[in-house]
Backbone:
């Protein structure tokens, strides 16, 4: 039983470690309205609006 608990603990630590390493690569880039308008008019980009209706 102790071996199983140790194994599960090691797996959990590895999962947390992998999550932390991979999540640092994802960044949110903030741009102003004029830059967004320019990109929409001149580049092929996808705009995803995730706001919720109130």
Residues:
């Amino acid at each position: 039983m102790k071996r199983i608990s140790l194994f599960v603990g090691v797996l959990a630590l590895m999962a947390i470690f992998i999550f932390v390493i991979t999540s640092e690569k994802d960044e949110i880039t903030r741009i102003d309205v004029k830059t967004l308008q320019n990109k929409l008019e001149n580049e092929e980009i996808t705009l995803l609006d995730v706001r919720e209706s109130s």
Observations:
- The helical segments are 2-23, 33-42.
- The mean pLDDT is 85.
- The chain is about 60% helix and 0% strand.
